Amino acid sequence: MKHYFLKRVGLAVILSTFFSCGKDFLDVPPSTVVVRQQYISDMKTASEFLNGIISNLTQLYSTSNGVYADLAADNVRPLETETDKELLTKYKWAMIVDGASSSQVNLNSLWLYGYAVASNSSFLLEVIGKFEKEDMEMAKQIKGSALFLRAFAHFQMVNIFAQPYFFSGDAMHMGIPYITTSDWQSPVTRQTVADVYEKMVADLRIAIPLLKDGTQSVNELTITRNAAKGLLARIYLYKRDFANAKILAKEVSRDVPIMTSYNYPADLFTQNDKESLFRLPPEQKSFLALYPGYYFRLLSQLFATSDIAILLNERPNDVRKSWVAHFGSNWTVTKFPTAATGAPIPELDYYLPIIRSSEMYLTAAESYAQLGQEDSARLFLDAIRQRADSTALDCLAIGKALLDTIYKERRKELCFEDFRLFDLLRLGKGVDRIDALPGSSHLPYPSNKAIAPIPLLDIQTSGLQQNPGY
């Protein structure tokens, strides 16, 4: 096992260097292309390279990147005395334009690693055909995985650096560049959000039949068919294609049902978690990232807001109330387990959820409700509600009240998992904080400050248009 992860560390370093010396974040210099071409010499090294790309993916959730959607919304807040710029600028919607990849006042690092994943996934797609005769099934799995990773990286970035799909009604507003080549000389432009979504859907539609069935292995960074379906269901939900979101979410929930109340929530994010469709290994095995537990428990710099804590505690028999705990006058986030594998730092020792079947149940519930099939919506909703609270009665809500109940349940179940801001924006809602630091109680919808600025280097060297308001 040690040898396996050392390989991943070495690859992660190689992949990181691809983006450390280019003229901007979107470029891969020629010398780097040579390194990649020399490294991948057969199916085995192609598989190792894929694991290296997934290691880069952990950086999308490192430090404040992994808590951004909760921090910039209403689930998490820093202490009033906090002086950490990395937290405060995102919490106060005060990010500024900067050229440094390690800047603390914006999300440049997420852009950097997002395009690292996209470019290297594209490179793997370009070369894998050379080795497919060695093992056709493995070649399919690698290709499907690379397509999944490319779509996922762009999905994260389009949510952070562009306004939501229906911001302009037809999604023709500025999105992000969608990278489908490893050619560092190819020009890049900001495509429309509609174009970005179309390309993500296309990548995943190709990926799904190539990928393996089953669930993600504990000891492998395997991307499964259900993971790709789950991501595609999420994308359809965000673009309000409820018919397709419903179909996929229903398929996934049938194949990977939620855990029962017997092992929920204790087994979530541990080796025994049976409902994760895609997750990242514990922080200390990735060797690259500092997951949210870094802020929630190790440093105690971020706390749950009182309103999410009250929501989790509104029913005395809801087991999710254990996800927050009193810490003086604050609420500590205790959702993620500690010491899941026996690694040296317990607070960082858990599997980071990216897609899980609970989300699919809630996606199915919302999609059914939006399509007017309310009996089916309540069926999926109650599966989540009654697993968490065995005394909860069947939901009888209809119309808007049913949707509001689904949204509330989604906020509870997925809290602290990097969804909240994106959910508010896709629903056309602003941020209204009950528990807020002074001067940070409201962000209207729409707002220029709801999205991050494009890194300065790509404005200057690639000619990308900056987001309004920066």
Automatic annotation (TrEMBL):
Residue span, SusD-like N-terminal domain: 24-237
- Report the superkingdom from the record: Bacteria
Subcellular localization(s) per the UniProt record: Cell outer membrane
Bilayer-crossing residues are none
What is the residue range of the signal peptide feature?
1-22
Key words of the record: Cell outer membrane, Membrane, Signal
A cellular component term, taken from the record's GO annotations: cell outer membrane
Domain RagB/SusD spans what residues? 348-427
The entry's family comment says: Belongs to the SusD family.
Record-given protein name: RagB/SusD family nutrient uptake outer membrane protein
